[in-house]
Each structure stands twice: as structure tokens, then as C-alpha cells.
Amino acid sequence: MTTSVRQSTPTEKAPEPFMGTELIPKERYTSKEFMELEWERMWTKVWNMAGRESDIPNVGDYFTTELGPESLLIVREQPDKVRAFYNVCPHRGNQIRNPGMGHAETFQCAYHFFEFNLDGSKKFVPDEDTFTQGVPQETALVELPCDTWGGFVWFNMNPDAEPLLEFLDPVAQHLDPYHFEEYAIVQDMTIDWDCNWKASVDAFNEVYHVQGIHPQLLESLDDIHVQIDLYERHNRYLIGFGVVSPRYPNQDEITEPLKGRLRQAGVDPATFEGRMGEVRPLLQQTVREEATARGMDVSGLNDDQMTDDYHYYIFPNLTFNTSATGFGFFRQRPHASDPNKMYFDIQSYARVPEGTEPPPRPVHTQHKHGEISLGLGMDQDSYNLPRVQKGMNSRSFKGLLINYRERRIRHMNKVIDDYVYGPDR
């Protein structure tokens, strides 16, 4: 298990790198050739999140996860050891386990009954004497680097991968004060989205579009004064909630969304005598007091973190909307063969006070694009993204014209370039 030293989440503004102003070529989002370059030079070289440690609490518990054309098998082999394997039998290529979770004493391939121990080593081969060339003892499930952080399991298809914490730097240290290992999953679904995985990442990495497709959010957040920090691989923005946007016509109005936040804090908006600017400090005080009273350690979080979205992007495909008592998590996975499709994983987590039983784990569900409602804000994004992808495929469209408030998009593409076209290429 990987751990890092807990500290307060830093709020300092990171230096701004110069990344140019040219168009980002549309082929990065539409081309099969670029998709293949990404796979070989980037996806197979980075740490990818597999799933939640709490899904495999006991020795022999396992789950599978899919990324591009690969299926991975994650198992708790010892009480303090989690392993990751390619979900492939070395005999004839059959997948060892179907998608999902389960428990096993050993892994037996359903095709010819080759059997493997939880550490991946060969246990039994039926009629082994009929292999005239012999079956080498090293015939085993192929293992990948695997580690844990924040209650999540991570894997890397690069056998020479750097340590997980080195890859996550500095975001792991930023997020440690939230105590992610104390959170329980309360929503788990996957949506088949008709867009490139990067188009989805882009949609959640900028707030410039709030005034466009999310006008209702102008009543509850500041989409103008947003701190953006770009690090070596990862990035973040800090967006204030509990206020109205500077774009909102009445800067003194306590809007319905703000009244809703007051009610959640136990304050009757009808008797609240403060001004709009006093709502956020009151919410911050109330959230801290209630969290502390419930036994949650929020001492490493500042007042802004009681209300605001410290929105972290972990390269290449993870988005965290963090708060003191819960977080939302998006994972954007590439399609195996089509650059115009992806898998959008949505998970929500609630913090569980020490000594309290976590809620039952929800069953994972998978849906087609537009099949179910994801809530107003997500439905707005879900409606828009296929239209973006179709537009990108137009012969008239040359590339993404990025402004300063959208620079997290340029930063992500710059990091992709570091892998795809870097000095080792």
C-alpha cells in the first residue's frame, strides 16, 4: 500500500507555463491513427485506476476492469497485498473471469481448466503429459505493477513504471487531507458516450461553458474568479460555491439554490437576515461544525474546502469534484477501437464517520447514451458531447481554439504530447 504524509491542501497559485496558442488539431479527437499512438505510447505507460480497495476486503476477492482492448484482473492475494494480472489464460487466450466482482480460492480457466494460484502461478494443468514440449512452471498469469492510494487500486502496463506516488505528485499530497479511504461508494454506473474520451475530460476541465449550457449554475457558483493550477502531469481549478456568479444580474439576491444550501445547513431562509455575501461563510462554519460533530477529521481542510469544489484532474482520465463530506468521481475510458466512442464511469462517494457502518454498496449498472437521466447538469453535458464529436468530424473544422480559461485542455494535450512525441520517441 502506498501512503503519503498528510498535510493541509495547498492553496498557492502554481506558476503558469507557456503552452502556445495554436489550434489543437481535431485529429487528436477523431483519428484512429492518433488513437493507436495514444494507446501504445501513453495508456500503456501511465498509472490507471482500477477500482476500489473496499470491493476486495478479503483474500481471494477480485474484480475485473476494462481499459481499451485490455481486461485486467485485480485480486487480494494476501491481507496486505493486492495484485493485478492481464485477464488472459496463457494457454489459448481465454479470459479467466467475466466482467464483475467475485471470490475465488484459485483462478480456473473455464475453457480447458488450467488453474492458477492467487499469486498467478501455475497450480494445475489437465493432462499435462500430453504437452510433448512440456508446460514450463513459469506459465502463469501475466502480472502488472499494482499499488494502492486513497482507497483505490491502481495498475500500470509498463513493467518499468515509476512508483505510484511519484506519478501522482503533487495531487496525492493535495488530496490526502480529505481521507479518501474513509469514503464509501453510493453511486456506480457507466454510460456509453458517443464522443472521444478527451472531449469528455475537456467538458469537466473548464467552467467557461457554464454560462452557455449550464445557466442555472450561475445562481450558486463563481465561474469567473477561478484559480487554475497546472502541474507536471495533473491540474486543478478551485471554484467558489455558495455565491452567485458575477454574470448573474442581481448580485444581492439569495437565489433558490442558495436557499437550498441554507436549508441543508439547518438554516431557514425565511428567517435568515444576512446578505448574499454572508451565506458562504455561514455554510462553511456549519459544514465544519457538523462534520466534526459526526467524528470526521476536517482539520486539514481550509474554510473554502467546506463549500467549494477543489476540482482535481489526474492525468490522463480521472476527474474529482471534492468536498469535505463527499466527492464525485468521473473516469473517462477509451473505446477499444473507435475514437468517436468512450465509456463514462460515474461514481459518487459519501464520507463514513469512524465507527459507523458504510451503506450497502450499489450494484454497478451500464447504460446507452441518453437512456437514463443523470440529473440536469449532467444531462446538459450528455446532450452536448455527441454534437461536439460530430462537429469535430466535419471537414470544415480544423481544431480547438482555446482561450485562457480553457487552458487545462491545452495542458492535458501537452502532457499527451510528452508521452506520444516525447524525447524517447
Question: Can you put this structure into words, describing what you see?
Answer:
Helices cover 21% and strands 25% of the residues. The protein is of the alpha+beta class and 425 residues long. The strands form five sheets. An eight-stranded mixed sheet has the order 14-15-16-17-18-19-13-20. β3 (61-67) and β4 form a beta hairpin. The longest helix has 17 residues, at 376-392.
What is the 3D form?
globular
Q: What spatial order of strands do you see in the largest sheet?
A: 14-15-16-17-18-19-13-20
Structural class: alpha+beta
The low-confidence runs, each spanning 5 or more residues with pLDDT under 50, are none
Distance between the termini: 32 Å
Radius of gyration: 23 Å
| Proportion in helices | 10-25%
Tally of separate helices: 10
Q: Kindly state the number of beta strands.
A: 21
Mean pLDDT across all residues, rounded?
95
Q: Assess the beta-strand content as a share of residues.
A: 25-35%
Task: Report the major sheet.
Answer: 8 strands, mixed
